[in-house]
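--- STAGE predict ---
source: upstream dedup step, 1 unique chain passed
mode: sequence only
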Amino acid sequence: MQQIWRFEASADAPHSVRPSRLREVAAFAFPHRRAIALIVALMLAVATISAVEPLILKLVLDGLPTSNGLNVLLTGLAGLTAIAMTRELMDGSATWLTWRTRIGLQYALLEATVGKLHRMPLRAQRSEGVGAIMTRLDRSIQGLTQAVSLLLFSVLPSVMFLVIAISIMLRLD
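--- STAGE serialize ---
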């Protein structure tokens, strides 16, 4: 009965992840696929804006010594302000949607595991105690949703920002 509560592939390979486990997690995330795609798109847009912002600042600084330097400065400041506001709105929307999706995913996982707990034999529940089982379930589900959120909504946009910034730098050089 212990194998039910672990996120392990098997006893001889505790750190490997079977593709069937990933499919199970993906099945819980599937109803949220549109929100996840929107979050990833928003985060990639924020990464792109963050990579383009120094280029606009460079154009402003390069245009200052020209004859219409004040006009370039005001246009650049207006552009940077618009970019900053857009970036913050997109980042805030992505954060709100991330938490909404994460709570939905966590609720779906908790509902499925509690349903499985109710179908288990009473003997298995008495051997360990329902409180201990529920605590382990809750912590495991929170850890899983945190890991998925971190990978999708923090690591992926950071990697994309690096790729975009490197490509811009290579083109400038």
